[in-house]
Amino acid sequence: MDRDTPGPGGGPGRGGPGGGGRRGRGRRRGGRGLGVSVTAVGGTPEAEGAGRVTLTFAPSGRSVRVPPGVSVFDAASWNGIAVDSTCGGHGTCRKCRVRLTGPAPVTAHDERTFTAEELGSGWRLACLVRATEDVEVEVPPLVTRPKASTVGVGRQVILHPAVQKRYVELTEPSLADQRTDLARLRDAVDDLVLEPDLYALRRLPVVLRHSDFKVTAVVVDEALVDVEPGDTTGRRHAVAVDLGTTTVVATLLDLGTGTPVAVASMLNRQQPLGADVITRISATMLDRRALARLTELAQETLVALVEEVCAEGGVEPAEVYEVALAGNATMTALALGVDPEPLGVAPFVQASADWPVLRAADLGLALHPGARVVVLPALGAYVGGDIVAGMLASGMDRDSRVRLFVDVGTNCEIALSDGERIVTTAAPAGPAFEGGAIRCGMRAADGAVEVVRLDATGPDPATAVSLGVIGDVEPRGLCGSGLVDAVSELVRVGLLDASGRFVPDEVAASVAPALADRMARVGDGERVFVLHRPSADAPAAACVHLSQRDVRELQFAKAAISTGWSLLLEELGLVASQVQQVLLAGSFGSYLSPASAVRIGLVPALPVLRIVSAGNVAGEGAKMVLLSQRERTGARALLEEVTYVELSDRADFNDRFVDQLAFPP
Amino acid sequence: MDRDTPGPGGGPGRGGPGGGGRRGRGRRRGGRGLGVSVTAVGGTPEAEGAGRVTLTFAPSGRSVRVPPGVSVFDAASWNGIAVDSTCGGHGTCRKCRVRLTGPAPVTAHDERTFTAEELGSGWRLACLVRATEDVEVEVPPLVTRPKASTVGVGRQVILHPAVQKRYVELTEPSLADQRTDLARLRDAVDDLVLEPDLYALRRLPVVLRHSDFKVTAVVVDEALVDVEPGDTTGRRHAVAVDLGTTTVVATLLDLGTGTPVAVASMLNRQQPLGADVITRISATMLDRRALARLTELAQETLVALVEEVCAEGGVEPAEVYEVALAGNATMTALALGVDPEPLGVAPFVQASADWPVLRAADLGLALHPGARVVVLPALGAYVGGDIVAGMLASGMDRDSRVRLFVDVGTNCEIALSDGERIVTTAAPAGPAFEGGAIRCGMRAADGAVEVVRLDATGPDPATAVSLGVIGDVEPRGLCGSGLVDAVSELVRVGLLDASGRFVPDEVAASVAPALADRMARVGDGERVFVLHRPSADAPAAACVHLSQRDVRELQFAKAAISTGWSLLLEELGLVASQVQQVLLAGSFGSYLSPASAVRIGLVPALPVLRIVSAGNVAGEGAKMVLLSQRERTGARALLEEVTYVELSDRADFNDRFVDQLAFPP
């Protein structure tokens, strides 16, 4: 929510309605859904929407319930109902005209905008009138055609990018009108602030005089970055980057329509210097030159991806005016050339939570010379810009439900909202989910087992194990979701006990006769469960298997995570059963089976329909800040709204961790 | 004057007192003086200070008269009386404590700053209390030691540079205090805004941890440009540049003391592409590559000068954090790489009046990586940043006297203030003053005649002509001031009539017997006056002489100028005799003999004591914007306060021009 939005009495700037634009009118209870319902689903009386007012928009017929005092414009925007506006609801453009059925105060701006007759029949500026009681709102057809785009977890975002273009036909100067070129342009573009780049000032006199004073002003936020000959308003692009430790994904967006034009991904070229955040930080501590090298490699990755999406989308790089970068704190620091060492050692301190707007050239990107890079801010050394992007994309700050956000990975970021407050933490889950420290572990690539189903008592041992394998090829190993599935199934059928130990052979033969022959020992006698035999006579060690130590690794990982969310629940005075939605985020979380996650205790024991794969929310959040200045403000506001809870500081962490090692009964 | 300064009732933000800090108490009338008196000298009753109030400052005993309503802090600042302050009088630092003898309202800030007893005995914050009646003001000894520096035409400037340093000793982070490095620094530097450059963010974590968290924050305006290990507050420099068409002058300033450390000048390296503004603009119109070349040459000039002053002053370039650039509109455009063509052809339009703050690197300057360049804004295509700097340095906006500012040159800039309003214009004087189009003309270099005195009736023809020659060498030619002197003297002695024609030989013999033998003819019979014969038998053409056509050139030049100021006088409803001070500015104006300037009608016919050489006011103004943010705001405010009058637009210009060709009777 924007900071300048008047919030309801209780929590300033919080508790507003979420997305849910696709829902139609009325209330809706329960059910699995990515879209955010406009009224609360279950929960406390406040969350039920007590004290809210209902706005019904015509001609769409859509109804929304919002806290009293919210402006009609914001209520519409939050719900994906497009109201004309070029200033974004700041009371300056006077375009957001709506007609209300009920009485509403008349402001000075209204008086300047409407005739007395119009005022009498209920016309007001939507950004200045507050919803104080139930009312119907007539929204005229759009003139400036704001568009909405569905992004993230069912969020509808009204397009209002920082990148704006205005085509103007200027009067030519004369001795009677010696206004400077810039003043002339500013007078014509009266709804935007134009603070010129030197580059734009260099182009201005030349372009004006070579195109009969018919030009397009290109503005990024408040910077005039260029003046283009003729009308180029239809060409306006930006690139959203999800800067992952392993994989980097770039999406080229058409800012006029809000749609992706091209997507490309590649391995982060920093990989050779370390598979994860900690090894890369270590590299910089061991070798003075490593930071420069890592920065170079990050930038090479970005350059290659940006070239690829531009080529694929048929877009000139000079038509890309903005880049958004969402990465964890370490990836962000490395890409910007900032020493990450303080992130890697206690007390885990960032150089800065927020970053200045950079030039694309600072990152070596050959886009428009004035192109800017907006870097998603971070909440802590281990809750980075990727997570802020994820919170934005999943509407963590705009939903009145109790929601738990879990981005599963080597470092697991967790956020919990009770609809008023948001708390967040990071749990050191270790490499188990990415295949590290797991005997047959591998990344989620071709040949990785990602789904495991066991039939312990069926008649045919040959079909007692069903495996889902990426690429539908011969299984080669076990990726994170397969690991969780395998352990979860072994617990379910009774081959693993609640403490995580393989049961004795005689118990195995009794509880799971069809699977008993898969219990084996390898090497020093460690017990394993064979998932796949490449040939009938292959020894267990040559098979895809799960070992006792693998189970322990997973237990450590899931205990770290569940300790995290259980502490957050406590922080907000909640119990697990009150959680109304769990969002599993990130490249790993999105593939996880909700049932297995519940079974091993990775997430609270809830009906599986409440557990939702959120997808690549980091990338979606990066898109959102490009598509909407309002969302960008919202991302910054999260820095103030979210409380970071440091786990390593807690005396009771180890006790709790041990408590969480066992699997739920 | 700052825009945020509460002005007197009549002209907002105008009419405040000027400098004059060196004057001692009481009023002072008339007399030649560069310092600006605090009360009006002659003129209208308003200019006499009617309705003003007198503030007497203790312990200095200084009295100043200011318009009622001005804050005590501003009244002191304008008069060079240092009052403690770190916020510059904006009501935030609560350091500007003064004790007043009379009653004064108590603000909420006062209540938070002083005890009841202190309030009772008259203590108030100087920036919040307004002068409404005569009062005595006790100023405590300084704690933060603001210093004042005398700059420009007797202006006292309180040092408050945009470049600020703060030494801080930070507490080290812990798990209980995980503030980011930037937040930690911001919390410690609470009187400045710190918006970090990427460079500063890169340095921050490293420098903090390598210097025990004892660092100096380097701030330029609101940008955090660096964090330096230990206490470097004593090292703070900037370079002021007067970017002339002919000569470029750089002054290295110590911002801690306000004093110049080194000065260097050199010919503008653009010279080979054209001696003046118009030929350089033409060069860019004839050759597409010329603009890039001219920009390169301007930057080479700046680089060489900056290197020279740093070397001479023993200052590391990395200790220079800011550069101020004052040049005419064309020199500024060329240095910044902006096409100057629209400046050179009607309707004479600038790309922009004001320029964004640039990085020194944008101009190729290897100073501190975060060093900024502030470019003085321009009032019109022919009243550039050099003139804005000159107005600042001469206090045109802070003086209640009627003052005329004339920067004599190829393009002559003229400004007139009546104490309330300022009007300005540019007159195309042509190259006469720079030796161009004058038969024996030369630049003001060794061998140039700069002073001419004639004794028409003395006994000895050998001593009838006294010449002042630059470098005390054999005369080689005539520079601008020598030209004005020569013509003025020839008019005085009667060898030139009022229309500018040499008198017939018989008249010459009668009115100036000692000089008659110097009247000669050359080439096609043109009449000349011989100023210096290299040998007794040298023909007139081989002598340093002044020709009839030379006189005509000067007449054209001075007529353009006097048409300019006479139109400005008319614009403000004044007559010439009301002008209380004429400031002759620029490298030429400063050498001009006031008497000769009056005699030929270049300036109004006033007592010579009212005609003052102002020196290199462009360079002084550039220094002022480096030494004082208040003055920098004042420079920008001039864009709003000054009205530009376009001469080429006036139907009556030619008539008036012809009227002005003759010399005054």
UniProtKB/TrEMBL annotation, chains A, B:
Name by which UniProt lists this protein: DUF4445 domain-containing protein
Comp. bias regions, Gly residues: 7-21
Annotated segments matching region Disordered: 1-47
Domain 2Fe-2S ferredoxin-type: 51-143
Composition bias type Basic residues, residue spans: 22-31
GO MF annotations, alphabetized: iron-sulfur cluster binding
Family matches, as PROSITE patterns: 2FE2S_FER_2
